[in-house]
Amino acid sequence: MIIQLKKDIQQNQRLDLEQGLNQLNIEFYPVITQMGTYFICTPIQEFDIRKIGYFKGISDVHRVTGNHKMVSSKWKLDRTIIDCGDGVLIGDNNLAMMAGPCSIESEEQINDTVESLLKNGVRIMRGGVYKPRTSPYSFRGLGMEGLKMFYQACNKNGIKIITEVMESAQIEEMMPYVDIFQVGARNAQNFNLLEALGEIDKPVLLKRGISGTIDELLYSAEYVFKSGNEKLILCERGIRTFESAYRNTLDLNAVPILKEKSHLPVVVDPSHGIGIRKHVIQMALASAAVGADGLLIETHKTPEKAATDGQQTLSFKEFDELMLKLKKLKEIF
Amino acid sequence: MIIQLKKDIQQNQRLDLEQGLNQLNIEFYPVITQMGTYFICTPIQEFDIRKIGYFKGISDVHRVTGNHKMVSSKWKLDRTIIDCGDGVLIGDNNLAMMAGPCSIESEEQINDTVESLLKNGVRIMRGGVYKPRTSPYSFRGLGMEGLKMFYQACNKNGIKIITEVMESAQIEEMMPYVDIFQVGARNAQNFNLLEALGEIDKPVLLKRGISGTIDELLYSAEYVFKSGNEKLILCERGIRTFESAYRNTLDLNAVPILKEKSHLPVVVDPSHGIGIRKHVIQMALASAAVGADGLLIETHKTPEKAATDGQQTLSFKEFDELMLKLKKLKEIF
Amino acid sequence: MIIQLKKDIQQNQRLDLEQGLNQLNIEFYPVITQMGTYFICTPIQEFDIRKIGYFKGISDVHRVTGNHKMVSSKWKLDRTIIDCGDGVLIGDNNLAMMAGPCSIESEEQINDTVESLLKNGVRIMRGGVYKPRTSPYSFRGLGMEGLKMFYQACNKNGIKIITEVMESAQIEEMMPYVDIFQVGARNAQNFNLLEALGEIDKPVLLKRGISGTIDELLYSAEYVFKSGNEKLILCERGIRTFESAYRNTLDLNAVPILKEKSHLPVVVDPSHGIGIRKHVIQMALASAAVGADGLLIETHKTPEKAATDGQQTLSFKEFDELMLKLKKLKEIF
Amino acid sequence: MIIQLKKDIQQNQRLDLEQGLNQLNIEFYPVITQMGTYFICTPIQEFDIRKIGYFKGISDVHRVTGNHKMVSSKWKLDRTIIDCGDGVLIGDNNLAMMAGPCSIESEEQINDTVESLLKNGVRIMRGGVYKPRTSPYSFRGLGMEGLKMFYQACNKNGIKIITEVMESAQIEEMMPYVDIFQVGARNAQNFNLLEALGEIDKPVLLKRGISGTIDELLYSAEYVFKSGNEKLILCERGIRTFESAYRNTLDLNAVPILKEKSHLPVVVDPSHGIGIRKHVIQMALASAAVGADGLLIETHKTPEKAATDGQQTLSFKEFDELMLKLKKLKEIF
User: Residues in domain DAHP synthetase I/KDSA (chains A, B, C, D) (predicted)?
Assistant: First the structure.
């Protein structure tokens, strides 16, 4: 059960409610987000929901069966739209495009990418400055220096930035330069990081774990929401299976299921989802056709020279081709 | 290496070629299909391919590296189109639709389905009469009696039939009533069945194994082809993963990969691929967008009363809706 | 519910029972095996079990909840012991060893293997004459000729034979020369083959499917049992996972679970389970320690020259070493 | 290539070596651990290894092909033994037992467990105070307060403590009370945490990721080692597969493979590996038989009342039984 408090609830009304819940022997967790205040209740026994409705200062009371509470579509019928500022939205009826290199490499690279995005009317640029790499001997990103460079080039062009954060300690420093914090697949159940991201007021994109279930992804989102941040985006990026013909197995079943179970926007990363450059466009089209709210696409002026992930990165020309096809697709759905 | 013989090769030319290969110490497998005669060679050492080119009666010599030979796109650049008769094609630029119930139940059911297909211009009906069931206590199909009923209703309406065959011994009896033989996921590596299907002149649709790799699916097709039947269709139907939120995990990565590696048409079964009725339409659209050559869709007048698989079966009305959306999609690709 | 009939039930008693069940509206499947006659009932509603007990000619009535009936440990508390003849047992308290080459290659090879087995007191030899191979271009076994050779060498030395059968049509021909029919992982859900094996009176060893669940393995056994053959052995042989460091992932969890759920003996194939020769001994010891009723081990005089599976085959010397260690292990458990 | 420096290498010798490597155009990473100083070199081209041997102050030069360097068995032939202090060793020829509850709950619980351990001669107690939980609404451990309580009861009894750390920021505070830091399966690729643990001088036990490959586990160990901490233990705890009959699929293949590839000790957690109390003893025996260097076992006075993981926790009596059986097993291997 979720009790949504009125924005103007008075202190004594809130105390009354808390006492009432205690008397009814109902455990509750207060959740305060950018959007509102909620009490999440996990009553052990069935009881008459009207007993709660009597209290003053309550905006609404929702029954939510199932394990997930705040992220569930059972209480919030309207789909959540994430406002990244300056009119950049994720989850409205447009397909939000987030494109750019796997790793930020240089100012020139950023400027080239920005140009490609502007040409296609894309408002969000992706690019990693902290790179989680399986091997400690691989290139691991330019760090804060790279992020500042990234920010400067994008900010003056009205482009929003999505980039990965790897631990709680990085959040504060990154904060001024980031528009959307991305949690990578390897950190999908790094609960401390999730809770720390719950305490800030910036959108967070959660990638599904490498072999994460739908259920686990929703629980990870619940961690962030419960800690106070409602601005959440879920991302399917391919799962690990027995098949070795591609890097990951893009699981597009996840899109309609996540949209059924949750009110949060769902985006897809087809670049990681198949990991093979020449097939990314087709997988991106399928992702759009299945109802994704946005796409994360790796692009680079010269993919074969990219510091990381070149094998799955589109050239700018290929990206233009994708955008054209997506435009046609959007016209019919 | 594949040596394609001329249709009018003379007996002495063929003997010369065989002797020549023996002298060059090249092992070869003769393959005779409906379309032509081939020698598949697996030479142990590199040698000058022109030494083969000298022989008379040869139409072409193709180098084919990699494990798969006859099904590989390396020797046959044109994509294979399967002719099911009466102008019903699979693998041309149209999306071949195969729809109908999981199990054939009654004459009335078949007639209802035929009507739904005709209304939508669909030319192939699916329906099982031999049902592979995990439990021996489940309904296992109407058998030959059902197939004959199925055939009568379809034949007079110009509808082609695709149905599953479960063992070699059934082929002969089923032969007059079947237009496309389907090999189910559980029999994907039933090599005896595959070879027996190689000896007939009817199209065969191979479903990917429950946890079958891309490589294994191509090898299974190679079994049929090598035994003499080129009329092959590959089918992605979802794989088994750790995820339990859906029946199977539809692997749309498989479509572009199979089309890259093989010249055979590739179709998708989104009904089994997700296993949840309300999401089948979206998965079907994604399958079309990713480039599938056809779709297998489970439909029923009253899905909730279907003998099997009702939970993933579209009603006729939902099927109409799907066909409308697919029509729009086809216009742009 | 399983109704076990008395061996000497009279025809009129049986008719009474059948009529009684019909009147009670209880669907039932009669199962006649080498050991007895059973009615498997799947009543739709709860009813008073004593109503059945009244009938004459009944030996016992067992409530069996859950999906599996005849193979379930819920009705048969004593563990099943498979008698392969001449005192060769599987499922008693000894570890039944089945060793030999992947493929039968020659008379010399068989004789060498028999010698190695006799030396170690092993009574069952494994060896394939029909080999299911992913590629149609691989060696596929010596067929019936090889089997006859296999039989002659073993029979005169009191060694029992286990070998794989690939389709129903082979059973009759193979019958005189085989002591245990093996169903391979790729045929684990070849239901026609399973039913055909249910109609013979020889033990059947069922390998778990390549990605077969515990539940599916038990259902496959149920197919055989329901068709009339109780002489069943279950075999864990490794499953397909994401891990590519070994051929398969040996799942020893399966052993205690299968022994809990079923009364059938459970054996393990560590050779396929890890697929790496130098680690087979350790995996075999683990299999024995976890409670397996027997082991299938690939052995060869010169593994590096074996026609198939040499990379996972023990030399005779390594097999001697394994037998010594197993002997010690048996002393303490 | 790994260059092992002499403990008493002089500053100018080291400078000479560094210059020499630069001149040879060989990139190198200096690694300073508790045990020694190493230069890890990743030369792009083959070169004469003797050119390195000329330099003074070098103890040894090892060629290490393959991706993993410091954790590889290719340069360190002796197996690593972890000294936890007071003669408590992991990786010598004894089976190191680590037992105790999933979660620390109370002083009484700790004392009860200590008593059970002492009785069985077990020197390491496990117990979580920071619990990574899928759901934010689950019990998440007693935190530092619990850890201090845990330490007091164990320290006075000569029992060492292993407990999970969830993020870098916790390390400093936990440091005085922990003997072995455990990295959980969900943090197996939390590279920031791994590097932070590389900077301390306490043993670290790394659990394999929920669907982590052997390769990834070794790379994660490489992260810790490269950051300066050689005291590493690898732990197999079951992987995620399609099988739902148990919580995880214990992958005992991992034990011989990890011991082949790495010089680090390998322990097994059969409690999580199967997740079913009544089968834990058998899986523990299999783990010992396969060659594990130690076992992590969940125990509790009253498993059915445990705050977490009760379904897979042994009672003290069951633990006694396991210890007896393990003792017998150790006598023969």
Answer: 81-331
